[in-house]
User: Fold these one by one.
Assistant:
Number 1:
Amino acid sequence: MNSTTWGTTNADVRAVTGPSDHVRQASWLPWLTMLVVGGAFYATEHDPLVSLADAFTETAEEMQQRVAGGDTVRRLVYPTMGLFGVACVLTSPWFAGTNERRRIDLLLLTPLVAYLAWCSASVVWSDEPSLTVKRLVVMFCVVAGAAGAASRLRPADLMLVAAVVPTVFLCIGILSELRLGTFRPWAGDYRFSGTLHPNAQGISLACLCLSSAGLIQIHRRWRPLFVGLFLFGFTFVLLTKSRTSAAGLILAVSAYWTITTPLRTKLLLGFVGTWCGVAVLFTALLAGTDVGGSASDAALLGREEQASSLTGRLPIWTELAPHAAARPILGHGYEAFWTAEHITKVSEELHWGIREAHSTFLDAILAVGLVGMSIALVATLVGAWRCQVAYSESGHPLYGMLLAMSVFGLVNACTESAMLVPAFYTFVLGTGLIFTATRSHETAARANAAAESPSGGLALAPERLTVSGNPML
C-alpha cells in the first residue's frame, strides 16, 4: 500500500520499526479484519427488521427461546473469528523469532487477564454451568480475535477498521429503514434504529465518531472525508434519541480534545465558548424564551416519557436488586443469571420483555459478583490511564481514541449493559488495550527521543503522522 493512500510504504515502515514489523504490513489485512470481525458481529447482533418490532426489541418468549435453544449462527461465526485471531498471532512479530523487544505493561495486562480468569473460574459456582461454558467460549473467541488484530494491525489500521465497519452498519441500517418505510426523521416520536436497538446503535455510532476524530489528525489529504463521517455519525446519534450515548459521546470527545489540544488553545476556546454561551442565554432571556423548559427538552432529546424513572430503568434495578444481594460477592456465574426462568419472572413482573439489567455494573454483579465487577472497573480505569500515558509518549491519536472510548464506556455502563458483552465496540476497545499493553519497545524509545529533540513533538505530514520526521503509522 503506497503512501498516497491510507498509510506508509513498506520501506518507510522497515526504516522506522525494523524488519520484524514488515510482516505486519499486508495491505489486505485491515480489509480482511473488517470482513471477518464486522461480518461476525453483523450476523449475530443485527436484524434488518428491528425497526418494525415493538419497542425495537424481542418479546419475552423470543428471548427465552434464544437462551434455551442457542443460536446456530453464533456457533459458526465466533469460532471463525477465534481461528482468524490465532492465525494472526502465530504469524505476527510476537512469534516471528525476531529481536524486537516489546514493553509489556503489567499494570494494564494484569487486570485484563484477572477478569478473564475470574469469569472462567465462575463455572465452579455458576447456577447454569453449561450456559456459562457456552458464553465463555464466545468470549474467548472474541478475545482471540482481538489479540490477533492487536498483533498484526498498525495503529492507523485499527482506527480505520473502527471507522469503516460502523459506517457500513449505518448505511445498511438506513437502507433497511428506507425499504421498510420506517425512516421518518421528521416524525416527533421517531428513533433511528437501523439494524440495532437505538441504544445499541448509539454505541456503534460513537465508535464511528471517535475513530473518525482520530483519523482526522492522521490523514490530512482525507481530512474532509473523516470530518464528514464524524458529523454524519453524530447526526444519527442524535436521531437514535439515546440520551446516554449522546451524553457519553460529548464527554468522550471532550476528553479526546483535552489531551490532544495545547493549553493555550484550551484556554482560548474555553473563554470564547463561555462568552458565546452567556450571550446566547442572555438573548434567549430577552426574547422571553422558557430557557429551563428548552434545556430540559434538549437534554431529554424530545423523549419525556418516563423521564423520572430513567425510562423504566429504576423499576428494573429495584426488581433485580434482591437477586444481586443473594450472591453479592461471587455472582450467579458468567452470563448465567439470564436464564429462561429469570427472563420469564422479571418480564412478568415488569410487563415487558427483559433480558438485561440496563446497567453494566448491575449485570456484572449478577454475573461475576462485586469481585468481578471491581476487576473490570479497575481494568477500564487503568486502561484509560495507560492510554493517556502512551499518548503523552508517542502522540499517536490511537491512544487518544482509546481514552475517549473508555470514557464513553464508563458513562454508557451506568444505564446500558453493553460494555461487558461481545460487540464491535468492546472488540475495538479490547484490541486497543491489548495493543497498548504490548507496545514495541523501539516505538516507545523513538517517541521519548522525539520528545527530547529540539524539533520533537507532533508534526502532521501530508499523508501520515510523524514524530520528528519518522512515520508512526
Note: Residues 360-394 form the longest helix (35 residues).
Number 2:
Amino acid sequence: MDISKNMQAKLGFSSEVYQQLSQHLSVLDTFQGSWKVRESQQVKYLKELRKIATIESAGSSTRIEGARIREQDVKKLLASIKKARFESQDEQELAGYYEAREVVLDDYADIEISERRIHQLHRLLLKYSYKDQPHRGSYKKTSNQVQANYPDGSQRELFDPTSPDLTPVEMTQLIGWLNKRIEKRDMHPLVFIAAFVYEFLSIHPYTAGNGLLSRLLCTLLMMSQGYDFIQYISFERVIESNKGEYYRALMVGQQNRYKDNEMISTWVFYFIKSLIKATEELNARYKTYSKLKTALNKRQKQVLDFIRDNEPVQVGDVDKALPEYSRNTLKKDLAYLVDEKVLIKTGDRKGTRYHISTYPSGFRSDSNISW
C-alpha cells in the first residue's frame, strides 16, 4: 500500500466536518499570532516557562509509555542530570527524552525530516537505555504489537503495526509525502503534522521508543512550521490527561488499517482539540506567572532565581548565595514562596529542601495523563 497515494482518502472530510475543523485551526493560528507579540515583549518569562514545560514533557511522555515516576522525582532527577546514574528503565527513558527535546528545541531549524535524521533522534532518545543499545537508530527486525498502557498498570493489545519487511518502504513513502506537503503548502500544517504522527504510530518502525519519538517529531514539526508556542507548554501533559480518548481516536482509524474505510478524521480532531487545550493552559500559566513575577520584591526574585538555577536547595545554600540579607529574612521569604505555591518544600528540619513548583500560584494540574 502506497501511503502517499492513500493519505488523501484517509483525510476525507465532509463539508460539515471541514467547516468545524477550519474553525479550530483558526483558533490555533490566531493564538500563535498573539503569542508572537508576547514573545517579543516579555522575553524574561520565556526561559522559565520553557524549562517547566520540558520537565513536564519528559515526565508525562515516559508515563504515557507506562513509567511510574512521580513529578517530584522527575524534577529531582533532571536537576542533576549531568551527574546522575540512571538505574531504572524509567529513569533512562526520562533522561533521554529530556535531552532529545532540548536538542529539538535548540536545533529544529537545522533538522530536516529524513530517515537519517529520524534515526539520529532515535539514537539520542535511547542513549541511556541499556536494553535498547542493540537496536538504537535501526528499524525493527521483528514484529511488534501496539499496546495501551493504563495508569493502573494494565495493558491492552490494540493492533498489529506494519511488518518489519515493509517498514523501510512505508517510512520512505511517509517521509516523502510529508516533505511534499511542506514544499507545496497545499494542506494546513497542523493537519499534515497530525496525519504524520498517526502514520508513524501505525507503522511503529522501531523495536522500542516509538511513542516517545512520535512526540519528539511532533514538537520538531510544530517548531519548524512556526508554531513555536509548543516549547512553552507540555503538549504531552495535555494528552496524558485523557489517555483513553487518545487511544480511541487512534483506533478509529487503525482498526481498519490497509482497508478502504481507514479514516483518520477522528484522530485529527482529537489532535487539534488537544492543541487548543494546550494553548488555553499556556495562556492561563503566562498570565498567572507574569502577575506573580511583578508581585515579588527584588529580594524574593533573587531567591527564586537562585533556586531555579540550583534546585534543590537548603536554607544554608540561599544564605550563602545572598549574604547581603539576614538568614531570618530569607527564611521568611522561603515560607512566603511556599505559601504562594511558587516553591515546593520537601523533607524536615535539617533535611528540608526547596524546589521550584511545576505550576505557578493560581494554576493547578488535574493530571493523571497519557499519550
Note: The beta strands are 146-149, 155-159, 343-346, 353-356.
Number 3:
Amino acid sequence: MNVPPPDEELTTTSASPVDGSIAPDTSTPDASTLDAAALDAAALDAAALDAAALDAAALDAADPLRDFRARFVLDPALIYLDGNSLGALPRATAARLAEVVEHEWGEGLIRSWNTHDWFNAPRRVGAKIARLIGAGAHEVLVADSVSVNLYKLIVAALQARPGRHTVLSEPGNFPTDLYMIESALRTMDAGHRLRLVPRGELAAAIDDDTALVLLTHVHYKTADVFDMAAVTAQAQARGALVLWDLSHSVGALPVDLNGANADLAVGCGYKFLNGGPGAPAFLFVAERHQGGLQSPLGGWMGHARPFDFVDGYEAAPGIARFGCGTPSILAIAALESGVDLHLSADMEAVARKSRALAELFIDLVEARCAQFGIALVGPPRGAPRGSHVSFRHPRAYEIVQALIARNVIGDFRAPDVMRFGLTPLYLRFADIQRAVEELHAVMTTDEWREPRFSERRAVT
C-alpha cells in the first residue's frame, strides 16, 4: 500500500521514516555524562574515538547501573541490541511465574482471584507503571494490547468531541496507530477523517475541527522525540485532545504525563519494560477525563458491578471502566516482574546512560563505517532522542542478518533502516564497541552479500 502524501485524508497507509526536525524536548536530561568522575565528556568526544584506544572497560566499571546486568538472563557471547522490540528476560520472572503457576493457580485455584488479588492486578500493576510515566496511581490500567487500547481511546475521544471530525497524526507514525485510527473512523459517521501532516507543520494544522491528535512520543524508526508538553498545550488551546503512544518511551527515558498536562496515553509492556513476548499493554486517562469518556468496548471487567451479572451495561467509575475482558494473570505477573525491576533503577541515570551509549554508537559508526554509505537516521549527536539508534543503507536487511550471524542482534525496518535498541540496564559500552567492530567487519569483507542473508523471514 502507498503512504498518502502529507495533509491528505487517509484511505490506506503504510509507514515511512520521519526525517524532519522537531521541537526540542526540554524534559529530556542532558546525558553527555553518567557522573562527574566516570564519563567525562572528553572520553566520548569525536576526536578521541580511536576504537582501539577507547577504554570501554573503564566506562563500564564506572557505570552506576552496571550491577543491573546480572539481573537479566543474557548469553555472554551475545550483544543484544533489540530491547526496543523485545526486552531481555529478568531473572526474577521465571521464579515469579513458577510461583503463580504452581502455588496460586495449582493450589489456590479459583480462590486466588481473591486470596492473591488477581482481580485487582490490572490496577495494581498499572499503579506501578504510573510511577514510571508521571501519572497518578488511579490513572493507569494494564489491559489488552496497544492496538486495542488505541481503539478504545480513539473512539472515546471522538465521542467526547461532537462536532469535530479530524484525527491528526504524522506520516510514518507506527502503523498500528494509523490502522487503529482507520478502524475507529469506520465506526463513526462518514464525516470523520484522518489527516497526516509532517511534524514540523502539526501545530499550524490543529484547528477547530480537530478532535484528536495522536502521536508517538519517541518515533519507532528514528528515535525523534516530540516535546510532549508543547504539543499538548498547542492542541488543548484549540480544544482538541491528545493521545500519546509511549511504547518506545516507558522504561527508556523519563516521562511526565501529568507534568505535560497529558490527556490520554497508551504503551506496551514487552519492550523496555521486559514483560515478555506479547505482554499486556497499558492505558492512561487523566483523572479529569475519566468521568466523561466512555470505552466503546463494554466488557464485563469494565462493568461497575461485574459479579451482579445484570443484563445492562453500567461503566465502572474511574480508570476501571476501560477494562474489557478477563485479564491474563500469567502475563500480568511477568510484566509486573519487569516493572518492579525498573522501579528499582534511577530513571535519570538510565536516560543519561542511554544518551552516552547512543553518542558512542554514532561516533564509532561514523569513524569506522561511514565509507560504506551507512548514514545516521534521526537526531544527530547531542540532540534529544529515544533509546535506539538507526542507520540507513540500501542493503540494510542483509547487513542486519549478517550481524545476527555474528551474535549482534539488531533489527531491520523497511525499507532500508538498521535499528539498534539501547537498553541501559544491561547493555555495556564494551558491547557498543564490539558491535561496531562486527559491523565494520561485515562491510569490509562484503559478508552481507552471502545469499543466505538475503532470505526474507516473517519477522524482521
Note: The longest strand covers residues 210-216.
